[in-house]
Amino acid sequence: MSLHRHNPAELSPPTGFTHAVTATGTRLVFLAGQTSLDMGGKVVGETLIEQFETALANLLTALAGAGGAPQDLARVTVYATDVEDYRAHAHELGTIWRRLAGRDYPAMAVIGVVRLWDEQALVELDGMAVLP
Q1: In the prediction, which pLDDT does 43 show?
Q2: For 52, which of 2, 45, 90, 100 is 20 to 30 Å away at the CA?
Q3: Helix, strand, or coil here: 123?
Q4: Between vectors from CA 124 to CA 19 and to CA 88, what angle results, nearest 5°?
């Protein structure tokens, strides 16, 4: 399996994402949206930063359960109830990403939403990975 990240010089330099990812491998893993739910099904964390860390950890736990690792992520979509807050904390969110998932970013998008399934949730992440 291999993922190749492509960031053409003709595009703005990416910060916290990769412009395009090509993947070869034998298994695709589609990861359901993960929020900051604890094992009891309760949203934990009061701030976007706290919830992002838990949601990312949950996404990576689901990926590990399918036999994958952070470097296998080809695509992640972030759904945020407050994109302005997300942008304001981009540096801290990037630090959390690098600590939990490493420095190789997948193709990513941040989408503003009115609300998520659980009313207290501020952020949700879903993704796709390619495994050997």
Answers
A1: 97
A2: 2
A3: strand
A4: 70
Half-sphere CA count of 66, side-chain side, radius 13 A:
22
Number of Cα atoms under 13 Å in the Cβ half of residue 37? 15
Strand segments (E) across 1-132: 2-6, 20-24, 27-34, 73-80, 107-112, 123-131
Q: How far are the Cα atoms of 46, 74, 80, 82, 88 from residue 104, in angstroms, in the given order?
A: 28, 10, 22, 25, 22
- Read off the amino acid at residue 76: V
Gap between the Cα atoms of 66 and 28, Å rounded: 10
pTM of the model: 0.88
Position 1 scores a pLDDT of 65
In this predicted model, what pLDDT tens digit does every residue of 1-57 receive, in sequence order? 688 888 889 899 988 888 888 887 778 999 999 999 999 999 999 999 999 999 999
Is residue 35 within 8 A of residue 104, CB to CB? The reply is: no
CA–CA distance, 31 with 59 (Å, rounded to integer): 7
Asked whether 131 and 25 are in contact (CB, 8 A), the reply is yes
